[in-house]
Structures are given as C-alpha cells and as structure tokens.
Amino acid sequence: MARIAGGLGTSHVPMIGRTIAANKQQEVSFKPFFDAYGPAHDWLARVKPDVVIVFYNDHGLSFSLDNMPTFAIGAANEYRNADEGWGEPEPRVFRGAPELSWHIVQSLIADEFDISVCREMLFDHAGITALDLLFPDHDVPVATIPIVINAVQPPLPTPARCYKFGQAIGRAIATFASDQKVLVIGSGGLSHELGEFGKINEPFDRMTMEKILDAPEELTRYTNDEIVDLAGAQGLELMTWIAMRGAVAGAVDVVSSIYHAPISHTGGAMMLIEPAAKG
Hey, which of 12, 135, 189, 250 has its CA 20 to 30 A from 264? Predict the structure, then answer.
C-alpha cells in the first residue's frame, strides 16, 4: 500500500517565490529560511517521494468569493499556473496523480466528507511556492495533487474539522494499492494580516510549531475567531498545517525546522517532519 513518507509546513509569501525566481536566496534578510531547506533537499534525495499533496488556500485563481468550496481536490492529469495579478508568469505544467486523487475522493465520501472535485484546476502561488522551495530549479519531478482549504470566505472550516480532514486523507493514502511514497504539504501562515502589515505574533507562532510537532489536537480547540484575534485574518492559513499534521499520524521526528520573522509582513516558518523511527 501507499504510505506517507513525510509532512512539510511552510509559509508561502509571494516574496519567497519572487526571491527564488531571481535566484537571490543568499542575498535577502531571510536567508536563514532558505538555508533551512538544505536538509529538506537532502531528505528528498534520500526518500524520493513519488507524489506531493499540497494543502493550500486559493487566492482567487480557481475560485472566487462567489464560489468558494470548503474543501476542493484536483483530479486532473496535469495542472497549470496563471496570472494572479503579479504579471504573466512563466508557463508551467505540473503532473497530476488522478488515480490517487479519485481514490482519495471515494474514500473521503465514504468517510462522510463531501468534497468538491476539480477536473481542471489552476495552481496559485500558495502551492507553487512550496514546490519551488523543495525543487528550486523549477523542475518538479513528482506527481502533484492540489487540495484547497477555504481560509478566506466564511463559512470557514474549523481547526478540528481540518484536522479530521487530514486524518481522513491519511487513511485514504494508506489504503491505496500502490507502493508510492507521499509527501504531504501544508502551505500557509503563519501569523499575518493584509490589512495590518506587521501584525506578527511570534509567541503564538512558536507555540503553534511546538503543538504541530507534539500535540496537534490542542490546536483543534481554538475557534476561528480566536485564531484571527491571535494571528490575524490570514493566520487562518494555519488550517493547512493542521490538515497536514492530521494526515501524518502518530509520533514524528523533525528533519528541519525554522521560524524567521518577518518575511515580508509574515511570521515565516517551515517544518519538515517524518514518521518517527520505530524502536
């Protein structure tokens, strides 16, 4: 059966992507953030995942405020990027994993999650930035499955619901008849609010990273309003990390981790984890 090889939580501020595109990772003030991906690149070379699932929030590229699903999964043969308002990007194609996507969809429905299924889906910067951090030469050699979590337009899923959603996806992967290795990414956060540039809550962000590692269930006790008060409106992107940790069940070991603030107007963070070694 397929198995989850690891999980990654990462920030996806557009400045990160633009820095990678300009090849200036070693010239910016948040160089330590990029340096933390060195062990992640070594891990990728050693583990060689076959599929990357990316939890992220769409920024108006595939969905509008008039049509915002709670959860949506891509089930296409390939995905493309498009202009989000930053100017026409370099055209790119990301290979899909439709067989695994449909298996996850069917498993989620059996698990009482009614999810939107997209046979065509545009990858926005939230997903692409995470992939470019892992594969900085822009060559993504793995199949991808984008999964959008609504962190934008009420009604929003709760942290508890996102955690259960991730757990359900973890169960689906574990029943897929394949020897594929899957990396699950939660792309978003941490604390920030677009209307209040500089609203960063470092103590909350660091606590979040500790709980993601050792006690993720404790994060599910927060309400959405409490997260907004503590981490800003866009701090709700934390839902993607919570879903990722739900998928990566049980005890985990840390491969690499960093908190660096600010990156642009955001509490920047990354954490790569893998299932704890047995024995």
Answer: 135
Q: What is the pTM of this model?
A: 0.94
Of 12, 192, 260, 265, the catalytic one is 192
**How is residue 200 written in tokens?**
């960063």
Number of domains making up the chain: 1
Mark whether 192 is an active-site residue.
yes
Q: Which of 12, 103, 125, 265 is catalytic?
A: 125
Q: Residue 70 CB: number of other CB atoms within 10 A?
A: 18
CA 194, CA 257: separation in Å to the nearest integer?
Answer: 25
Domain that holds residue 65: 3-275
pLDDT tens-place string over residues 159-184:
999 999 999 999 999 999 999 999 99
List pLDDT tens digits, range 99-150: 999 999 999 999 999 999 999 998 888 888 899 999 988 889 999 999 999 9
Catalytic status, residue 125: yes
The domain spanning residue 84 has which CATH number? 3.40.830.10
User: What order of strands is seen across the sheet that includes strand 143-149?
Assistant: 116-118, 71-74, 143-149, 51-56, 181-187, 3-10, 266-275, 252-263
Q: 54, 134 in Cβ contact below 8 A?
A: no
